[in-house]
Design brief:
With 331 residues, the chain is an alpha/beta fold. It has one domain: Rossmann fold, CATH 3.40.50. It has ten helices and 14 strands. The chain has an eight-stranded mixed beta sheet with strand order 6-7-8-3-9-10-14-13. It has a four-stranded antiparallel beta sheet with strand order 2-1-4-5. Bound molecules: iron/sulfur cluster. Iron/sulfur cluster binds next to loops.
Length: 331
């Protein structure tokens, strides 16, 4: 697709733990992200969304499938030269602002490291850009000589954002950038990312487990369960009109504050635990927890189908929609 900045084709990432144990962390995921789009990727912990993001950006070698960036196929497994080559185009903002910043480096060294490694700029020029980025993320330029432990979690995530964006990448994977932060600062960091996306024309894959938070910044939302993508569509369509039984329960378990009634909508918990991703049986992966499971669900893997009467780009993988739909990609 020429209108994609990034496209995954049947992307699969398995980890072999032993001769009889295969972790199917990511299975057969095909999606595309348009230039300047934010795609929210949500699911419970253990759904494979972080592994997907890391495989997309080359931090894990692919088991099979491919990733295209600007139409160019990315390497199956990155070598050092590939990281060097793609650093200016793709970056990642990590989940944990406490462990992802080197405690022995100053904030100036941390934010400027990418330019130091991947540009020919002099130290004084790098320092100018670091100061500029400290201002852009809402910190003071005199923070440059301080160390990460002197900052709060929210400030450290701002430092992580500056470190990732100083190279002006086109595409950024945000790997649960708010989940380690206090609720009070989560919205600030989401808003900062939204503003920077607008001013820089960024394209983002925004990974989160809280759908209600990510929907504000996302153009579309994709939902993962146990390594599979089970629903994808425009952000408001997925949030207000979820079709897959898992997405419906996920939204119910992440209620939004209801300002009119000064209380939250009652939370619905998802029954049971997400199963182990080791040696996943055939059929729908959600069958063991689904209130609508049928015999066919335990035998056949549902295909992602376009629900054209629900939303223009709304796809769902569930046997409840087998009739009157055609599998995605069919003529
Ligand atoms: Fe439930 Fe079956 Fe749909 Fe899976 S395919 S979500 S088990 S109804």
């Amino acid at each position: 697709m020429t209108d994609s900045l990034l496209e995954t084709q049947n992307l699969t990432k398995h980890f072999r733990l032993g001769p009889d144990a295969l972790v199917q962390a990511v299975d057969d995921i095909s999606l595309s992200i348009a230039p300047k789009e934010i795609l929210g990727l949500v699911g419970e912990s253990g759904s494979g969304k972080s592994t997907f993001g890391k495989t997309v950006i080359g931090l894990h070698p692919k088991t099979s499938g491919s990733v295209l960036f600007n139409g160019e196929q990315l390497p199956e497994a990155y070598q050092a030269a590939d990281f060097q080559r793609y650093a200016n185009q793709m970056q990642m903002i990590f989940q944990d602002p406490y462990s992802s910043l080197n405690p022995r480096m100053t904030v100036g060294e941390i934010i400027g490291e990418g330019l130091f490694l991947h540009s020919d700029l002099r130290r004084s020029e790098i320092n100018e850009q670091v100061a500029d980025w400290l201002r852009k993320v809402g910190l003071n330029t005199d923070h440059m000589s301080r160390y990460p432990h002197e900052f709060s979690g929210g400030q450290r995530q701002r430092i992580g954002i500056a470190r990732a964006l100083i190279l002006s990448p086109e595409f950024v994977v945000c790997d649960e950038p708010i989940s380690a932060l206090d609720v009070s600062v989560q919205a600030q960091v989401v808003n900062l990312l939204g503003e920077l996306k607008e001013s820089m024309g960024l394209t983002l894959l925004f990974i989160a487990h809280d759908l209600s938070m990510v929907r504000y910044v996302s153009d579309r939302i994709a939902v993962m369960y146990l390594g599979s993508m089970i629903e994808i569509g425009r952000s408001d369509d997925v949030f207000f009109n979820p079709q897959h039984p898992y997405t419906q329960l996920l939204i119910g378990s992440n209620p939004e504050p209801d300002p009119e009634h000064e209380r939250t909508r009652s939370a619905v918990s998802i029954p049971g635990e997400i199963p182990s991703p080791v040696n996943i049986p055939p059929g729908c992966r959600f069958a063991s927890r689904c209130p609508h499971a049928m015999d066919v669900c335990r035998e056949q893997t549902p295909t992602l189908r376009l629900l054209s009467d629900i939303g223009e780009e709304h796809h769902v993988a569930c046997h409840l929609f087998d009739e009157a739909t055609t599998p995605a990609g069919s003529a």
